[in-house]
Automatic annotation (TrEMBL), chain A:
Organism: Mesorhizobium muleiense
Entry-linked PANTHER family: ANAEROBIC GLYCEROL-3-PHOSPHATE DEHYDROGENASE SUBUNIT B (PTHR42949:SF3)
GO molecular function, one term: oxidoreductase activity
Keywords, in A-Z order: Oxidoreductase
Region annotated Disordered, chain positions: 379-401
Domain FAD/NAD(P)-binding residue range list: 86-285
Name of the protein this chain belongs to: BFD-like [2Fe-2S] binding domain-containing protein
TrEMBL record, chain B:
Sorted UniProt keywords: Oxidoreductase
Keyword Lyase found: no
Protein name as annotated: Sarcosine oxidase subunit beta
Domain Rhodanese intervals: 19-57
Organism the protein comes from: Mesorhizobium muleiense
GO molecular function: oxidoreductase activity
Cellular component per GO, a single term: cytoplasm
Length: 498, 392
């Protein structure tokens, strides 16, 4: 069976799932049939798979992978949770190959919540696959190979690139891509950041300023008119399903950040789970040549069939050696754009948390908690030999806790914590992923069948009757046999539970 | 070569507490307030296990610690100096006649104990619980108890303790104990030896293993509990609405956070579980939530989580001194730790400092009640882990 959540519905895109669409999709994305047709037309292999007898399910999301392990023993085997627009269900699988792709890391600045500020992968998908990108003139942030490729793809799709903005002193991607883009009349602004996105209903322009070595804005601000801001400061493997299952995920700069640890057959640390394509690692050569990802798929098949020879692929077994320091690069962007921003804005848009509130570990504003002498706590008060943990910060500030499930802010938060702790990104643990890795309506989740046995033995809490005895009823000695004799007498009076 | 422990100035404390969960931290906060030199050591991060993975309910009406808990919760924000998100009162909904019958019995029982509780009429139910549907057959309003935010509360205890001079060492696992005669004089850790006059073991599921190292086991079995959380919904008048086999709350942000279900018993390794995986039980919790609050059916589940929680054989707490080493107090709240934490910490403080709990009779928490426990009690009660299949 081949599962793909794409093309997702207009409403799902509106919820920034699975990419940062930034409300940049046009009405075309509302036409379900046209979207599906465009999706299938652009990728001939879908038809090939269908013709080969593969059960192809488009518009179907996998929101969870489950397997037995040290903490779970009751499952019948590896299980995938699926849902389309109307239905939710589980299927078992002997092997799972995850090819969940990439996602853009978010980057905030004043006004970044305005419609038209969007991730590069979302922009390219809308423009090239569906012809459904609203902004016609955009500013692009970032100059990695992935950013420059996105710029070229958008340009080829008829989108005007007003400027490419780079916080670093020079571009970090391949020279030939830069040369080609510049030849097309596009402007490259290095050592610059977006100070603000302007506009009423949506983006109408940006203010750009130069930055000094410390990331502070210097000199005059310059306005560039545009309808969109494309965030291309980093792409990251989509590891949510793998991480939630418990596959070993490690920070691997050569693979684009946190990525699953895989062997030569693309096998993850969980024996029957494989990762291929961008979700197994993103590097320039792979971004530019799809045969590398296809080769990974082939090797995974070889590993599953125990036939590595006939499914061997010489294509790009190893990532490129990184040509720039990914950790320093991303932290540089967050420092210049977020920390040195001229005004407060919400790094976590769902829960409306600012960078300052994250770093000072402030309780959410709706609690109305007044600062006082005893509440001047900050990140340093949480630290003790360990690195700052984004999950701990999340629990206290709610940053990353909202309906977009942290897709737009988790990498920014990690960079903020790293900057504050003067540590590299690799030192910041990966914030946890838990199922459902896509928002799953209760009405759909509740359709999953439940065994009669489980329904019969459902307990509010542990179902220990003696837990609710009054102290005066507690016998001098507790033994299982005497308890069984008295348990029948407890009449189910319960107070409550944690 | 000089070891790191030798060069790092690691000192102990008058009272060392093993376990940075809600019970250990509350005890530490109470001790620090009393001017006691206290140090909490935690193998990971505070509240990382069961203390941060519960529904936030402040219940357990039959506990001897309950009246003091009721007194303390409404003033905890003020006492700690940090917000706990405590919200008073609970509503129990019934969507079947059978559930209503059980709730009627519970209501009668708490009334006999002198607490205020009333049956709501349909109009009151639809006003107080707008997410409920026509299928609701009854509901009770409890004018006591409530709920709070576990994460915020745990951190509040830790910060409050530090404000009073207490200390916290995170990422510091216990490897052993140093004893002299019938006294534990130090705790051996990954970061060196920490001396102590008194020791408190409040290490959740690990309390059993650690107490065994000191010659008197606190019998415990561990199980996984799971919860789900939805996107925020408009706030109801009272967040503490539960029923239909679920416990939980609407958070002050508006999320519905609920749990329940079968609780799978687990074997625990020395360091616990590296991850706390959830299971498709999420969907079955979701179904019960939709049955209880049909008007929330459109809302999405955005997270689920699981935690490992310990229970004693009778599900009741242990707060007692070890007979083998009388300067050691062992403490487990047996799966009802969060809600009772304001008073459990005070009880532990009293036992450590004064030898006896000043505000409640906690003799039912004595460890000696298990002296005649069958050695195979876990098997007899069916609290055993399913066999693990070996990976190929």
């Amino acid at each position: 069976m081949l599962i793909d959540e794409n093309p997702v519905t207009f409403k799902t895109m509106g919820n920034e799932v699975p990419l940062h669409y930034g409300q940049g999709m046009s009405g075309v994305a509302r036409n379900r049939n046209a979207m599906i047709e465009a999706f299938v037309t652009l990728e001939p292999l879908i038809q090939v798979a269908f013709d080969a007898g593969v059960d192809v399910r488009l518009g179907t999301a996998c929101w969870g992978l489950y397997a037995n392990g040290p903490g779970v023993h009751w499952l019948p085997g590896t299980v995938a949770g699926l849902a389309d627009q109307e239905r939710g269900w589980l299927i078992g699988a002997e092997h799972v190959i995850v090819a969940a792709g990439r996602r853009d890391i978010g980057l905030g600045f004043p006004g970044w919540e305005k419609p038209g500020v969007m991730g590069a992968t979302a922009a390219v998908t809308l423009a090239t696959r569906f012809g459904a990108l609203n902004p016609r003139r955009v500013v692009i942030l970032g100059t990695s190979a992935e950013a420059l490729s996105a710029a070229a793809a958008l340009r080829d799709a008829g989108i005007e690139i007003a400027a490419i903005v780079e916080q670093a002193t020079e571009h970090v991607g391949p020279d030939h891509l830069v040369t080609e883009l510049l030849a097309g009349g596009c402007e490259l602004l290095t050592h610059c950041v977006v100070r603000e996105a302007l506009g009423g209903e949506s983006v109408e322009g940006v203010l750009i300023a130069a930055v000094d070595k410390a990331g502070r804005a210097v000199g005059e601000e310059r306005r560039i008119d545009c309808e969109g801001v494309v965030l291309a400061v980093g792409t990251t493997p989509v590891v949510d399903l793998l991480a939630a299952l418990g596959c070993h995920i490690a920070f691997q700069p050569e693979r684009g950040g946190y990525a699953p640890v895989v062997d030569a057959g693309q096998r993850t640390s969980v024996y029957n789970i494989f990762a291929v394509g961008d979700c197994a690692g993103i590097w320039p050569a792979k971004s530019l040549d799809r045969r590398i990802a296809a080769g990974e798929g082939l090797r995974a098949v070889g590993a599953i069939l125990g036939d590595a020879e006939n499914f061997d692929s010489a294509e790009g077994l190893d990532p490129d050696r990184p040509v720039y320091d990914l950790s320093a690069y991303r932290m540089g962007w967050v420092r210049a754009s977020v920390i040195e921003a001229r005004g407060g804005f919400h790094v976590c848009q769902c829960e409306e948390v600012t960078a300052r509130e994250i770093l000072e570990v402030r309780p959410p504003r709706y609690l109305g908690w007044q600062a006082d002498r005893r509440n001047d706590r900050s990140l340093s008060s949480l630290l003790d030999k360990g690195p700052p943990n984004p999950d701990q910060v999340k629990r206290l500030t709610r940053a990353g806790m909202g309906p977009c499930q942290g897709r737009r802010c988790r990498e920014q938060i990690a960079a903020l914590l790293a900057l504050q702790a003067t540590a590299p990104l690799a030192a910041i643990p990966l914030a946890g992923y838990r199922a459902p890795v896509r928002p799953l309506p209760l009405a759909i989740a509740s359709q999953l069948p439940e065994s009669a046995d489980q329904a019969r033995h459902w307990e509010l809490w542990f179902g220990i009757l003696s837990q609710w005895q009054r102290p005066s009823e507690v016998p001098e000695f507790y033994t299982v046999s005497t308890n069984e004799a008295t348990a029948a007498a407890v009449n189910g009076e319960r107070g409550g539970s944690d | 070569m000089v070891s790191e422990a030798a060069v790092t100035k690691v000192t102990g404390a008058s009272v060392v507490i093993v376990g940075g969960g809600v019970t250990g931290l509350s005890a530490a906060w109470w001790l620090a307030q009393s001017g006691v030199d206290v140090l909490v050591i935690e193998k990971g991060i505070v509240g990382w296990e069961a203390s941060g993975r519960n529904g936030g309910g402040c219940g357990h009406v039959t506990s001897p610690l309950y009246p003091e808990m009721l007194r303390l919760w409404p003033i905890m924000d003020q006492l700690l100096g940090y917000p706990t998100e405590f919200s008073a009162n609970r509503i129990h909904l019934a969507v079947t006649e059978e559930q209503l019958a059980v709730q009627n019995r519970s209501a009668a029982a708490v009334k006999r104990q002198g607490y205020r509780c009333e049956l709501l009429d349909q109009k009151q139910i639809s006003e107080l619980v707008p997410l409920a549907g026509d299928n609701v057959v009854g509901a009770h309003f409890y004018h006591f108890g409530g709920h709070a935010n576990p994460h915020r509360t745990v951190q509040g205890y830790a910060w409050g303790m530090q404000d009073h001079g207490g200390r916290l060492m995170q990422h510091c696992a216990v490897t052993g104990f140093r004893t002299e005669g019938e006294r534990v004089v130090g705790v051996e850790t990954e970061r060196g030896l920490l001396g102590c006059d008194q020791l408190v073991i409040a290490a959740g599921p690990h309390t059993g293993r650690l107490s065994t190292m000191l010659g008197q086991e606190v019998p415990l079995a561990s199980a996984r509990a799971e919860m789900i959380v939805t996107e925020p919904l408009p706030l109801m008048a009272y967040g503490g609405v539960e029923g239909n086999g679920l416990h939980g709350r609407q958070t002050l942000r508006g999320n519905l956070a609920f749990g329940g279900g079968p609780h799978e018993w687990l074997e625990l390794s020395d360091r616990g579980l590296s991850a706390n995986p959830t299971t498709p039980l999420m969907a079955h919790i979701g179904r019960r939530l939709v049955e209880m609050m049909p008007k929330a059916a459109h809302a999405s589940i955005i997270r689920s989580w699981a935690g490992v929680i310990e229970n004693t054989p009778d599900g009741r707490p242990v707060i007692d001194r070890l007979s083998t080493f009388p300067n050691v107090v062992v403490a487990t709240m047996s799966s009802v730790g969060f809600g009772l934490s304001p008073s459990s910490g005070r009880a532990i403080r009293d036992v450590v400092v004064d030898g006896i709990c000043s505000f409640a009779d906690i003799s039912s928490f004595r460890l000696a009640r298990f002296a005649r426990l069958e050695p195979d009690w876990r098997e007899l009660q069916g609290w055993v882990s399913l066999a693990m299949e070996e990976a190929p």
